[in-house]
C-alpha cells in the first residue's frame, strides 16, 4: 500500500428512531416519533429528565426516562445545558440509546460528512450520536458507487479495511474504523 492521505467521514443520523406502543387515546398500536425535545424537572439538587415522543396519530406524548432523581452535580459539564436547549446531537444520542434497541423503524437514516480525496486515501469513520450503517452502505454512499461495485472492488483489493478484515463489509461501520481506498 502506498502512503495515502487521510480523510474523516462522519456518520450523522438524519432521522430519529420511532417506537411502536399501544396508544391509550387512539386505543390501538401506534408509531411514536421523537419530538426532538427533552423535558427537565429540577427539584433542588436532583433532577428528572425525559425524552419526549408523540403518537403520530393523535400527538399524545410518551416520555422515556433519561434521568431519574439524579444529582445535578453528578452530571457531566454542559450536559444539563444541552438538555435544556434540546441540543440536537444530545437528543439524537439519547434517542439511539433509549429507542434504538426496540426501534420499529429500519435503522435511522444516516448522512455522511467528509471529503473524498483523490485515491489512494484512508478514510477514518466517525459515528456521531450513535449513527449506525453497514460498511458497504457507507462506502457506496460516500464514494457514489453501487453496493455491487463496492463489493467488487473489495474482492479485488481496491478497497480494504485497515487492518485487513475481509468480513467488515457486511457489518456495521465502527467508530474509529479505517478504510483504505486505492486508485
Ligand atoms: Zn394516539
The total of beta strands comes to: 9
Count of alpha/pi helices: 4
Segments where pLDDT lies below 50 for 5+ residues?
A: none
**Helix coverage percent of residues?**
10-25%
Radius of gyration in whole Å, from Cα?
Answer: 20 Å
Taken from the alpha-carbon principal axes, the silhouette is elongated
Class from secondary-structure proportions: alpha+beta
* Major β-sheet strand ordering: 6-1-7-9-8
Helix and strand sequence: EEEEEHHEEHHEE
Q: List the quaternary state of the chains.
A: single chain
First-residue to last-residue Cα separation: 11 Å
Strand fraction: 35-45%
Largest beta-sheet details: 5 strands, mixed
Bound molecules: zinc ion
Count of all domains: 2
Report mean pLDDT, rounded to a whole number: 88
Can you tag this structure with a few keywords?
39% strand, 2 domains, alpha+beta, 183 residues, binds zinc ion
Question: Could you characterize what this model shows?
Answer:
It is a single chain. The chain is an alpha+beta fold. 19% of the residues lie in helices and 39% in strands. The protein has four helices and nine strands, in the order E-E-E-E-E-H-H-E-E-H-H-E-E. It has helices spanning 79-84, 88-98, 135-143, 147-155, and strands spanning 5-13, 18-23, 28-43, 46-55, 61-71, 110-113, 121-127, 159-162, 178-181. The protein has a five-stranded mixed β-sheet. Strand 2 (18-23) and strand 3 form a beta hairpin. It binds zinc ion. Zinc ion is lined by residues 23, 25-26, 30, 55, 57-58, 60.
Amino acid at each position: 500500500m502506498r502512503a495515502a492521505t487521510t480523510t474523516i467521514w462522519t456518520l450523522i443520523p438524519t432521522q430519529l428512531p420511532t417506537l411502536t406502543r399501544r396508544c391509550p387515546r387512539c386505543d390501538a398500536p401506534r408509531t411514536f416519533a421523537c419530538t426532538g425535545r427533552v423535558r427537565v424537572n429540577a427539584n433542588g439538587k436532583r433532577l428528572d429528565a425525559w425524552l419526549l415522543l408523540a403518537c403520530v396519530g393523535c400527538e399524545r406524548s410518551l416520555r422515556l426516562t433519561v434521568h431519574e432523581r439524579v444529582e445535578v452535580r453528578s452530571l457531566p459539564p454542559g450536559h444539563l445545558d444541552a438538555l435544556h436547549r434540546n441540543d440536537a446531537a444530545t437528543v439524537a444520542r439519547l434517542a439511539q440509546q433509549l429507542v434504538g434497541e426496540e426501534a420499529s423503524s429500519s435503522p435511522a437514516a444516516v448522512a455522511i460528512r467528509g471529503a473524498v480525496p483523490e485515491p489512494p486515501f484512508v478514510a477514518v469513520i466517525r459515528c456521531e450520536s450513535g449513527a449506525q450503517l453497514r460498511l458497504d452502505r457507507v462506502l457506496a454512499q460516500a464514494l457514489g458507487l453501487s453496493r455491487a461495485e463496492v463489493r467488487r472492488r473489495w474482492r479485488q483489493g481496491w478497497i480494504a479495511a485497515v487492518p485487513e478484515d475481509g468480513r467488515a463489509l457486511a457489518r456495521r461501520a465502527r467508530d474509529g474504523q479505517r478504510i483504505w481506498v486505492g486508485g
